Amino acid sequence: MLLKVFSAAIFGIDAIIVTVEVDLAPGTKTFISGLPDNAVKESRNRIEPAIINSGFLFPGKKITINFAPADIRKEGSHYDLPVALGILGANNQLPDVDWSEYMIVGELSLDGSILPVHGILPIAIKAKRNNFKNLIIPKANIREASVIEGLNIYGFDNLREVIDFFHGNFIPDNNKTAIKESISEHTCESIIDFADVKGQENVIRAMEIAAAGRHNILMIGPPGAGKTMIARRLPTIMPPMTFEESIETTQIYSVAGKIVNNGGLITERPFRAPHHTISDVALVGGGAIPKPGEISLAHNGILFLDELPEFKRSVLEVLRQPLEDRVINISRAKYATTFPANFMLVAAMNPCPCGFYNHPEKQCTCGHGAIKKYLNKISGPLLDRIDIHIEVVPLVFKELSSSKTSHSSKEIRNNAMRAYEIQKDRYKNLPKIYSNAQLHSRLIKKFCPVKDEGMVLLKNAMEKLSLSARAYDRILKLARTIADLDESEIIKPYHLAEAIQYRTLDKSNWGL
């Protein structure tokens, strides 16, 4: 007897419908086809004891299992449950069911327990889009899937519960409270705050501008100046995630298997800080089984690269395309996929190999050539995509011991939010443009007009400070954000003057 049930395969961060066909015929062997990996091939070793230990009969027949479409590789253990139900249904141990209404995923333990799996959210999205009425999943994944409305989601602890459900003898507890919490959950107050930062008012101001306009930022300063401390507080002043952003981010983390404690919707902006020994593939994603890398895990959040020149040159260069396009396209011999990569780059670096160039107290031991060589580890095209370069000067004892506190994250965030809302309204008719950082040359001319007085200031700054040509557009975009923070439609000379200060590495004599 032949029976068809439906499951899904994960490809990139999306799901593809897989038809699981189970056929019973005279014989004793089991055949699995449809491009299965080792985990799928070994499913017979899990499914047979799971069925028997759940109190049901495993058929002593030839079992042929096919996964369609056959040209897509089937990976993982989440096909165990649909295969087990296919075998039981084909052996007449289940009532007549309209299987076209059900999408089923879950890994089976030898005792029949259903274990949690990765990628539940994209599977639930696919089920909803393809008009499946019901989704059967492990109970541990219920909160993650429940953010998708208009779909009956049933979570089970073991195989016997699923079979009793089809016989009408069991009604699963779908944890409605958890579903409501996962949808309405909001970002809690962070335990870190900009109020903890002593001094560094100019750097905090640069962070406020970066958060308001979603500008990439690079901090240059000696060890212990507070670069990492400040960077880790940046998420506390960024706008809250929208529901759509939360869905996108949760989908990525679901595929990567990084949903914490099988929780629900991710509502806090990601902050990813990979070590400088990271490989190209770990950063951009890919591998034999395409998985999102760090830049996709930072989608809608922050990618923090500490000690920037210590990263391999090849690793840094792969950032250029995603910083521009906001996606990462991965092409291999056997597949091509696209991962989202709309992140904000925050980087920190020492000014020289010893770390003490421009230090107010300690002497730099590096020669001019060594400093130049160190700075040249970061290519011009990458620097071209970083809008703000800010020098972080270490604090003196008087500033460290002062009882004076900085503005709180809440205050800074409110300012940034006002500027962000102005940008949303300004670019509402432009597709995929929502912040000043995304403006290209043609849009800069349209939205960043500068009057004659401002152009004179900009011209003088370019000449006297020996700013590079690539600094021109960046200064205009930064000035646009500073004007938005000032709630001014016109870019005024003092907006330009402040923006010019944030191009440290574009000064031709810096580091000499």
What does this structure look like?
The chain is an alpha/beta fold. The protein has a domain at 2-183: Ribosomal Protein S5, domain 2, CATH 3.30.230. Helices cover 37% and strands 16% of the residues. It is built from 22 helices and 18 strands. It has a five-stranded parallel beta sheet with strand order 11-14-17-10-18. The protein has a four-stranded mixed beta sheet with strand order 1-2-4-3. Strands 5-8-9 form a three-stranded parallel beta sheet, with helices on both faces. α2 (43-53) packs across α3. The model is unreliable at 176-188 (pLDDT under 50).
Largest sheet: 5 strands, parallel
Stretches where pLDDT falls below 50 for ≥5 residues?
Answer: 176-188
Alpha-beta content class? alpha/beta
Number of helices: 22
The CATH architecture designation of the domain at 2-183 is 2-Layer Sandwich
Task: Report, as a whole number of angstroms, the end-to-end distance.
Answer: 80 Å
Strand segment count: 18
- What order do the strands of the largest sheet run in, or round the barrel if closed? 11-14-17-10-18
Which percent band covers the strand fraction?
15-25%
